[in-house]
Design brief:
By secondary structure, the chain is an alpha/beta fold. The protein has 3 domains: 85 residues, no CATH class; 183 residues, 3-Layer(aba) Sandwich (Rossmann fold); 55 residues, Winged helix-like DNA-binding domain superfamily/Winged helix DNA-binding domain (Arc Repressor Mutant, subunit A, Orthogonal Bundle), CATH 1.10.10.10. 44% of the residues lie in helices and 11% in strands. The protein has 16 helices and 11 strands. The strands form 2 sheets. Strands 1-2-6-5-4-3-7-8-9 form a 9-stranded mixed β-sheet, sandwiched between helices. Strand 8, helix 12 and strand 9 form a beta-alpha-beta unit. The termini are far apart.
């Protein structure tokens, strides 16, 4: 039985948690790759042993794997801060996030972990929000909280901060794009401390990690994955809030938008979402009425990890097989099933070759499980 299957029946041991953290912190290992590695080798520890050779076969000279000491230091930093690493499948792991595509194997969490089991509504919007938008966000968030929903947002200035403040007394969750010890932006540090005491803060990023621009879409994905629906209060045409809405839609979550004046550029993105089919929200009841039937239904069963592959059941791929897979790949995303049909290789062989390319930093993964080759220009 794989470690993740075991994690649904009991908690990880300290050693397993250490190994999981070391694997997910390794170079080119994201949630999807982590899952494949544990499927392939049966445990994070066995996968760590295999990483250098897999990356070499994929075309990399080396792969960075954190030392035992580096992981010990991160776990000690979490203990000093009063934070916990929660693994997918453990009782505290948010149940809806676990059903998202490739959920983070581990999240660092600080605050009231009991809130993570509550049904949640996400709220996002403009950083340079109008006073009207801030008031609306606080009013909606307060009502959501009073009705028993956890309000999820990203701790950004503007609408995010207003949503957190409006739901601080009833339950709010902040998702960070950096480490738990690197909250951003600086002006929300006091709000961050309040949420750690009265709500809960989570991140998939390492301690000491300062958020970069490309980390915010990852944060937005978690906001969407935690929520039955995501409400956009104010958003310009080119706004990170629209990324959250798109991700929520791809996950099958509901997307709501509050309309705004056509003369206000901060409303352009929300108005565009409404034209594209988002649910109109002019009152908190519009959101609550749509979410209530979903929150009242039992969640579908979690996507289980496969049993470890039996290496003797399928011959390992050779260089000719790798060449055929590389030839089938390009900059346009394709599904592994298409590659399997095109090459005629066994699914386990194709998956292993894709894993090797991924660990070598040559593969990009897309929503829906599709993959593409990263073109270098050589």
């Amino acid at each position: 039985m794989s470690e993740e299957n075991a994690g649904r029946e009991r908690r990880l041991t300290d050693q397993q948690r250490h190994d999981w953290l070391r694997l997910i912190r390794s170079e080119n290992v994201g949630p999807a790759t982590f899952r494949q590695l544990v499927n392939q080798f049966g445990s994070a520890r066995a996968a760590l042993t295999a990483l250098p050779e897999l990356a070499r076969r994929g075309g990399a000279r080396r792969i960075k794997i954190p030392s035992e000491g580096e992981i010990d230091a991160e776990m000690e930093a979490a203990r000093r801060m009063g934070a916990h690493f929660v693994a997918v499948g453990e009782p505290e792991y948010p149940p809806l996030l676990m059903r998202a595509e490739n959920p983070p194997p581990l999240i660092a969490a600080k605050g009231r972990l009991d809130l993570l089991s509550q049904p949640a509504i996400g709220m996002v919007g403009a950083r340079n929000a109008s006073l009207s938008g801030i008031k609306l966000a606080q009013r909606f968030a307060r009502k959501f909280g009073q009705e028993g929903y956890l309000v999820v947002s990203g701790l950004a200035r503007g609408i995010d901060a207003a949503a957190h403040r409006g739901s601080l007394e009833t339950g709010t969750l902040a998702v960070l794009a950096g480490g738990l010890d690197r909250p951003y932006p600086p002006e929300n540090h006091e709000l961050f401390r309040e949420i750690c005491e009265e709500g809960v803060v989570v991140t998939e990023m390492p301690f000491g990690w300062t958020a970069r621009a490309k980390d915010f879409p990852r944060r937005n994905r978690i906001v969407a994955g935690l929520s039955y629906g995501v409400l956009v209060v104010e958003a310009a045409h080119r706004s990170g809030s629209l990324i959250s809405a798109r991700l929520a839609n791809e996950m099958g979550r509901l997307v709501f938008a509050i309309p705004g004046s056509p003369l206000d550029p901060r409303a352009a993105g929300a108005n565009k979402l409404l034209k594209e089919g988002a649910i109109l929200a002019t009152d908190p009841a519009d959101v609550l009425d749509a979410v209530a039937p979903l929150a009242g239904q039992p969640l579908p069963g979690p996507e289980r990890m496969d049993e470890p592959t039996d290496p003797s059941a399928v011959p390992p791929p050779d260089e000719s097989d790798r060449g055929r897979v590389l030839e089938a790949l390009g900059p346009t995303p394709v599904s592994p099933d298409e590659i399997i049909r095109h090459t005629g290789l066994h699914p386990a062989q194709v998956q292993l070759i894709l894993l090797e390319l991924d660990l070598a930093g040559r593969l990009e993964r897309h929503s829906g499980g599709t993959v593409s080759l990263i073109m270098t220009g050589d």
